[in-house]
Design goal:
CATH class of the largest domain: Alpha Beta
Largest sheet: 7 strands, parallel
CATH superfamily of the largest domain: NAD(P)-binding Rossmann-like Domain
Number of helices: 10
Radius of gyration: 19 Å
Strand order of the largest sheet: 3-2-1-4-5-6-11
Order of helices and strands: EHEEHEHHEHEEHEEEHEEHEEHH
CATH architecture of the largest domain: 3-Layer(aba) Sandwich
Number of domains: 2
Number of strands: 14
Strand content: 15-25%
Helix content: 40-55%
Distance between the termini: 37 Å
Shape: globular
Structural class: alpha/beta
């Protein structure tokens, strides 16, 4: 059995679906603060918070857990600056709760949902895994600290782990069953799609004077299905080799904010109104992954380009509007 924390959230729910389809027995735990019960359509579900250590112990006691895939975290960078305590308690302290209970029950396989935010301002592009790590937000620092804890637990207790450092997750389940649903939404593509469906009048472009070809930030957008494939490859690699490691997950291709907006206009047939806005704290001009390590060791190869990523996001976004209407009626 694979335990998936935060499995009612965006990436965790996609991983849960694919694991289940591949024949794995899955158990999702989520406190539903940001996750959606509607997304846990596969495997078992337990409503639980990682702060509740007694309930966690019962979950491990009552289920034949082989490995843990850990997605449960708060991820709003700006909020982490204004309320760091929230992030250090949930992301760091609660992860320690989980790891310590795993050790108590002899569970030694751990897949960690990390982030490119641990690198901070990039010194080279594309960014390799051995790039210096200097996170500039409390959110990024929580992920950085957990990776250091994983290193120490590996050496001291034999914990085997793989840390997957995402770049910009995007898109939705190609079957249209689940997708991106954040409250509040901060990701670029669904915010643009909100304009396309008429929920918003415009999209703010945070900074138009960056040292990039069109003045807007460039990011590496990786489809959630490609992320899902990487998680399963990482799990199978970990179980087969007992080797701990870290991997970047990105496409190695960057797109500017304006390029993404233009692609959304092509896919949706809608004109997107934009407003130039001031820069946000902590936004580097360019973030692009080097994913050569994941390709060579895990045999992972992303399949979705920006166009197909937006197409799946648009399909889901339209369905989500109907789902929200049904839930409010």
């Amino acid at each position: 059995m694979i335990l998936i924390t935060g499995g009612a959230g965006y990436i965790g729910s996609h991983v849960n679906k694919m694991l289940y389809k591949k024949g794995y027995e899955t158990l999702v735990i989520d406190n539903l603060v940001y996750g959606h019960r509607e997304f846990v359509r596969w495997g078992k579900f337990v409503l639980a918070d990682l702060n509740d250590t007694e309930k966690l112990k019962q979950i491990f006691k009552n289920n034949p857990i082989k490995a843990v895939m850990h997605f449960a975290a708060f991820t709003y960078v700006g909020e982490s600056v204004s309320d760091p305590r929230k992030y250090y308690v949930n992301n760091l302290k609660n992860t320690l709760n989980l790891l310590n209970i795993m050790l108590d029950f002899g569970i030694n396989y751990f897949i960690f949902s990390s982030t490119c935010a641990i690198y901070g301002e990039p010194q080279e592009i594309p960014i390799p895994e051995n790039h210096p790590q200097n996170p500039i937000s409390p959110y990024g620092r929580t992920k950085f600290m957990i990776e250091k804890i994983l290193e120490d637990y590996h050496h001291a207790y034999g914990l085997r782990y793989i840390s997957l450092r995402y770049f910009n997750a995007a898109g939705a389940d190609p079957d249209g069953e689940i997708g991106e649903w954040h409250e509040p939404e901060t990701h670029l593509i669904p915010l643009i799609l909100d304009v396309a469906v008429g929920n918003s009048e415009n999209i703010k472009i945070f900074g138009t004077d960056y040292p990039t070809p069109d003045g807007t930030c460039i990011r590496d957008y990786i489809h959630v299905k490609d992320l899902t494939d990487a998680h399963i490859l990482a799990l199978e690699y970990l179980l087969a080799t007992n080797k701990s490691d870290v991997f970047n997950l990105g496409t190695e291709r960057g797109y500017s904010v304006k390029e993404v907006i233009k692609e959304v206009e092509k896919v949706t047939g809608k004109k997107i109104k934009t407003i130039a806005w001031k820069r946000r704290f902590g936004d580097p001009p360019v973030l692009i992954a080097s994913s050569q390590k994941a390709k060579s060791i895990l045999g992972w190869h992303p399949q979705f380009d920006l166009k197909t990523t937006i197409e799946t996001a648009w399909q889901w976004h339209q369905r989500l509007q109907n789902l929200k209407i049904r839930l409010t009626n």
